[in-house]
Amino acid sequence: MKEFIIIWIGQLISSIGSGMTAFAVSIYVYQSTGSATLVSLAALLAFLPTILLNPVGGVLADRYDRRLMMILGDSLSALGLLFMLISIQTGHRGLMPIFIGVTINSVFVSLLEPAYRATVTDIISEENYAKASGLVQIAGTSKYLISPFIAGLILTVSDIRAILIFDIATIIITAFAVASVKKRIAVVKPITHNFNFFKEFEAGVNSITSDRGVRSLVILMTFMCFFIAFIQTLMTPMILSFADTKKLGIMESVSAVGMLTGSIIIGILNIKKNHPKILMVSLMAAGIFMALVGTTTNITFIVVSCFLFFTALPFVNTCADVLIRMRIPNDVQGRAWGMISVITQSGFVMAYAVCGALADYVFGPMLMEGGIFAGNIGQLIGTGEGRGIGFMLIIAGILMFVFAFIFGWKKSIYEMEGSIR
Where, by residue number, does the polypeptide cross the bilayer (predicted)? Predict the structure, then answer.
């Protein structure tokens, strides 16, 4: 557990840095253009390469030293940050350097994620899977909890360059943290035959498709990612339509305390049963709270709704993580997590590809003064800039609830816990 804690601390620090960069990039793009579409495009470019290349990272994580893959992925991802920093510093303040930089960063993160997930299985016993998952989510939460607050304060006295420098520094710290424990962890090398990428890729696919429970759960989590991407991407333009950058940073940090709360509760309780039921109930609750976020421009109400939304997510993620981790053999987990990542997070990609355009050109005009919904739905949730996004969040939240309810009755998911390998 000691080795896991050291690696986890490194990932916590890295997550804070990457969260600050993501926040600063969204602000930079929106303030430069005023376009939710371009904010979505930046998010897509920061995400799509990782998704597409995660299966490659998974294959490499099962063949080579997983800790080495983490170090390489983290270290090389700094090249994208350095590219953005140099471009802005030398006067290239258009969006193209930002788009190229986040893409480079995302390419190398694909080496990190499958190796990190498989490493947890390497060094943690089964009875501590839920606790470890809670801690991993706390680290992930930091990009919503701590990063926006710090970045918001820095951006009031400096600009995106300071954020990029900070992020590069966190990557260096993380690489040293993993390197410090690398020699004390046995290298998992289950593949001894001649390397054939396509056969290894196929093994990763089969580890998912051959299990009905895993297959159903992956489909459900894909839909969940699709709907969650709406609130992640559109929250910034919605809030900035009636508040300033500092309030946005504080609002995101305070509301994300909910995810920290949920993760801490999971870490303390170390959930060991009823994972399918907890997953479905939590996902339905998250859908309700997402819908509530879109109903108003009252910051206090939005913060409370976001708090409850993020409180529910760790329970969903942990239960899905434990069920899958215990069903799939360790020697294919790198490949399995790589494939699961590309499938589930394709939901994010699809949402990023459409939500900005829907906000700018479809739902936005509908809720402007004189729009088609201004006289009915607009009477309930308000009209003007940002209210079309609010309406989108209401729809996404309702659909999340419906999908959770439908999949909640699938026998294949409920039977997963009773037939864990």
Answer: 7-30, 36-56, 68-88, 94-112, 132-154, 160-181, 217-243, 249-271, 278-295, 301-324, 336-359, 389-409
**What proportion of the chain, given as a percentage, has pLDDT over 70?**
91
Residue 410 DSSP label: -
Give the tens place of pLDDT for each residue, 12-34: 888 888 888 988 888 888 888 88
CA distance linking residue 114 with residue 419, whole number of Å: 25
Place of tokens 């998952």: 133
227 vs 13: CA distance, rounded Å: 27
First to last CA, the chain: 23
Sequence spans of domains, the chain: 2-182+197-419
The tokens of 60 are what? Answer: 């490499």
Cα(118)–Cα(346) distance, rounded to whole angstroms?
20
List CB contacts of 411: < 8 A, sequence separation 6 or more: none
How far apart are alpha carbons 129 and 127 in whole angstroms?
A: 6
CATH number for 2-182+197-419 (one of 1.20.1250.20, 3.10.450.50, 3.40.50.300, 3.40.190.10): it is: 1.20.1250.20
- Burial (CB < 10 A; 0-12, 13-18, 19+), residue 113, is buried
Q: Which residues contact 42 (CB under 8 A, 6 or more apart)?
A: 25, 26, 29, 95, 98, 99, 102
107: number of Cβ within 10 Å? 19
Q: Is the whole-model pTM more than 0.85? A: no
